[in-house]
UniProtKB/TrEMBL annotation, chain A:
Its main location: mitochondrion. It comes from the Eukaryota. Component of the MICOS complex, a large protein complex of the mitochondrial inner membrane that plays crucial roles in the maintenance of crista junctions, inner membrane architecture, and formation of contact sites to the outer membrane. It comes from Parambassis ranga. It is found in: Mitochondrion inner membrane. It is a single-pass membrane protein. GO terms for cellular component: MICOS complex. The chain crosses the membrane at residues 18-36. Component of the mitochondrial contact site and cristae organizing system (MICOS) complex. Pfam families: DUF543. The lineage of its organism: Eukaryota, Metazoa, Chordata, Craniata, Vertebrata. This is MICOS complex subunit MIC10. The keyword Transmembrane applies.
UniProtKB/TrEMBL annotation, chain B:
The lineage of its organism: Eukaryota, Metazoa, Chordata, Craniata, Vertebrata. This is MICOS complex subunit MIC13. One of its GO terms (cellular component) is MICOS complex. Keywords: Membrane, Mitochondrion, Mitochondrion inner membrane, Transmembrane, Transmembrane helix. Pfam families: QIL1. Component of the MICOS complex, a large protein complex of the mitochondrial inner membrane that plays crucial roles in the maintenance of crista junctions, inner membrane architecture, and formation of contact sites to the outer membrane. It is a single-pass membrane protein. It is found in: Mitochondrion inner membrane. It comes from Parambassis ranga (Indian glassy fish).
Length: 75, 113
């Protein structure tokens, strides 16, 4: 992987992390206000879920360079 | 009869709002891969200036918005140069420290003369 490509991947990872953190936070706030009587745990749960999704995405993307994909296997 | 239905209606409203929020988040690709996320970000960035213009017109303020300066800041390039700067200053630190100590001692000697 060239360094430029790696840099772009990291940029995408960070942006994606920020987006998912924000989304998780907002969804957590919505659920906390609507269903759980304004307690704190849905908010932390939502942000944690968002961060976890971003981490998994990042991991898959950074590994995809070394993983053999299905289209190459069928030859 | 209305008093008996009200809790059900409240619950239904809440579920609708929460379900709608989840659907919007899913549909705009916020929960998908990172490419979808950056697409959504680009769309949002492109949609902001027209929205701001509309709001300004609505309030009757026809001022010319200052253009948002394009930030040419790449975190990756900054990180690399940051690492280089740190390591080079670390390697020069002992020499510089010795020099500063010598200068300080010289200054004190000059004082006591």
């Amino acid at each position: 992987m060239s360094e430029k490509e790696l840099g772009k991947k990291w940029d995408r990872c960070l942006a994606d992390g920020a987006i998912k953190l924000g989304t998780g936070l907002s969804l957590g706030i919505v659920f906390s206000v609507l269903f759980f009587k304004r307690r704190t745990w849905p908010i932390s749960f939502g942000s944690g879920t968002g961060l976890g999704m971003a981490y998994a995405n990042c991991q898959n993307e950074l590994r995809s360079h070394y993983v053999l994909h299905r289209s190459e296997k069928e030859q | 009869m209305a008093a008996r239905i009200l809790p059900v209606v409240k619950l239904a409203t809440k579920v609708t709002i929460a379900g709608g929020a989840l659907y919007v988040a899913y549909d705009s690709g916020l929960l998908g891969s990172s490419e979808q996320g950056s697409e959504a970000l680009e769309k949002a960035k492109a949609a902001i200036p027209p929205a701001i213009e509309e709001w300004m017109k609505y309030f009757g303020v026809e001022t010319q918005l200052p253009t948002i300066p394009k930030i040419e800041f790449s975190p990756v390039a900054a990180w690399n140069s940051g690492v280089q700067w740190t390591i080079s200053s670390l390697s020069e630190a002992p020499t510089k420290a010795a020099e500063h100590t010598n200068n300080g001692l010289q200054y004190l000697k000059d004082l006591t003369k």
